[in-house]
């Protein structure tokens, strides 16, 4: 604790957060968590503390996570080499079992445990539970990689109304019992849309949408979905940011009030976004 930071200053900071606490109390916020923010253990705990603090002040939080490195690590331990086509993991029957073990097992339950350690009430789910994420096969050559066909949010509404923090791994299913590996960004956007969330936070490894991808000082703090589409066409938004921005646009079109893309490796970035004037990252709006 910083000894130079007085109790009066701490009280002032809390007072400045009051309007935001009032604004978000009882509101639903969906957070997609992944990338480098999941690798550093200290940073992971800070993210969980942000989630629990947000929950304690009355925000209904849903945490949706990825886990690509953990999947690849487990595949290696089991003697199976990861294979990718156009950036997507080829997922045969054996691999989808590994995906389920890594995501719905190890990663999901470790996050539930951290939420509990931080003082929250976490419940771990996969998209299979309550048929939360129904999926269909995307492309035969990719195997059991799924596109979302339907979100059934009833189980999440029940958990939120009973004071829990749902923590979701993005493994989906179909009516025939097949299991699919589903992109976590897409799943988070679809779940946020199905719940008509007040905010969807997409945590990435960069500051947000940049006018110059090599200059983090060129961050665009707020942008409409129409302007975002223009920046995709002009090439300002390129590469791996395109599908992320597409997910944000999809969430807004499905009824989410606004979406924020931000750097999840910045300590306490969730609290910065929700409880300060300046926020964090780039806010995308429908207007």
Quickly describe the structure.
With 287 residues, this protein is of the alpha/beta class. It is built from nine helices and 14 strands.
Description:
The protein is an alpha/beta fold. It has helices at 7-24, 41-56, 68-77, 93-117, 154-161, 184-194, 225-234, 241-253, 269-275; strands spanning 28-33, 60-65, 84-85, 88-89, 122-126, 133-137, 145-151, 165-169, 171-173, 179-182, 199-204, 222-224, 258-263, 282-285. It has one domain: 3-Layer(aba) Sandwich (Carbamate kinase), CATH 3.40.1160.10. Helix content is 41%, strand content 22%. It is globular. The chain starts with 6 loop residues before the first helix and ends with a strand.
Which secondary structure elements does this structure contain, and how are they paired or packed?
Layout: H1 7-24, E1 28-33, H2 41-56, E2 60-65, H3 68-77, E3 84-85, E4 88-89, H4 93-117, E5 122-126, E6 133-137, E7 145-151, H5 154-161, E8 165-169, E9 171-173, E10 179-182, H6 184-194, E11 199-204, E12 222-224, H7 225-234, H8 241-253, E13 258-263, H9 269-275, E14 282-285
Parallel strand pairs: 1-2, 1-11, 2-8, 5-8, 7-10, 11-13, 12-14
Antiparallel strand pairs: 3-4, 6-7, 9-10, 13-14
Helix pairs in contact: 2-9, 3-4, 6-8
